Amino acid sequence: MANSLISALSNQKTLVSDGAWGTLLQEKGLEPGVSPESWNIDFPEKVKEVASAYITAGSDMVETNSFGGSRYKLAHFGLDDKVWELNKRAAEISREAAGPDKIVLGSVGPTGVILMMGEVSEDDLYEAFKEQVMALAEGGADAICIETMTALDEAVLAIRAAKENTDLEVICTMTFDKTIQGDFRTMMGVSPEQMVEALLAEGADIIGTNCGNGMENMIPIVEAIRKVNPEIPILVHANAGLPHLCEGKNIFDETPEITASYIPDLISAGANIVGGCCGTTPEHIQGIREKAQGIRENDTE
User: Fold this and answer.
1) Which helix (H) or strand (E) holds 89?
2) 150, 170, 182, 281: which is closest to 235 by C-alpha?
3) Rounded CA gap, 17 and 103, in Å?
4) What is this structure's pTM?
5) Residue 255 pLDDT more than 60?
6) Residue 181 maps to which CATH number?
7) What is the arithmetic mean of pLDDT over 251-258?
8) Whose CA is closest to 61, among 168, 177, 186, 160?
9) What is the pLDDT of residues 68-111, one digit of tens each?
């Protein structure tokens, strides 16, 4: 039986998620132009090392190495015939690292195809998500984490596929950028308020935001979500600040101490699950854990 995030949240007000996967896989030798998901078969021990590092750092949950595991993303690497194998193995590896009690989130990223442009039909996109989420469920995922979405139509289809074809809880997060007016929108123009209404209508159990911002900018996004719905659990996976180019590489300068310093305000704004995205490391997660733990202890005094 799958571990329940909702039950875990009822026991503890705040949970800690994991951090970046791509950052750590690159440190372990993942080259540009190589599918990260291919490592689930080719280098499973290195993938497990990433998951294990976050568990050791204090994560209550760990994702799977399957962000680009849809048939559309894998087709770029000639791996679209291995969707089931790669996703199932991704979940199995994280399950091995997490053990029976920690929560495994089956990561599902955007497909890279756009419905409104006619690049794909709704039925085909639904089938792609169905294939991926069922494989993650079979591999041992406890929940499906649909993340880094920018278009509501794609996010809704992914949620629907997960709800209709698995019995797992479903998280969906979108990526927002700060506009010149000072509010936040996805690349496709979706506001946090619009996201809440659409994702809850489709049955998402947990919603939130990931990537695109450091922890500081996640605070007003969470506040905007909370104004619409005071009860839905909110997950935040923030970058280690905003990237800048250095010798052709994206560098994230936000230290674990800086990231952790925003945790009290983020939790006060209404975040329930906090972790990292691009540029974050086990050290960032450890810092988040320590701040969150302090808040937990104060709440029980």
Assistant:
1) helix 83-98
2) 170
3) 9
4) 0.95
5) yes
6) 3.20.20.330
7) 90
8) 168
9) 999 999 999 999 999 999 999 999 999 999 999 999 999 999 99
Neighbours of 18 (CB within 10 A): 30
Round to the nearest angstrom and report the end-to-end CA distance of the chain.
33
Q: Which residues pair with 210 in a beta bridge?
A: 237
Furthest C-alpha separation in the chain: 56
- Structure-token pair, residue 216: 């500081």
Contacts of 39 (CB under 8 A, 6+ apart): 25, 30, 46, 47, 65
What pLDDT score was predicted for residue 282?
A: 98
Kind plus residue range of the DSSP H or E element containing 220: helix 215-228
Positive or negative: CA dihedral 193, 110, 24, 102: positive
Q: Structure tokens of 101?
A: 């009690």
Pair 88, 136: CB distance under 8 Å: yes
166 in Cβ contact with 209 (< 8 Å): no
- Count other C-beta atoms under 10 Å from residue 177's C-beta: 12
Which structural domain, as residue segments, surrounds residue 62? 5-300
State the total domains in the chain.
1
Cβ atoms of 96 and 82 within 8 Å: the answer is: no
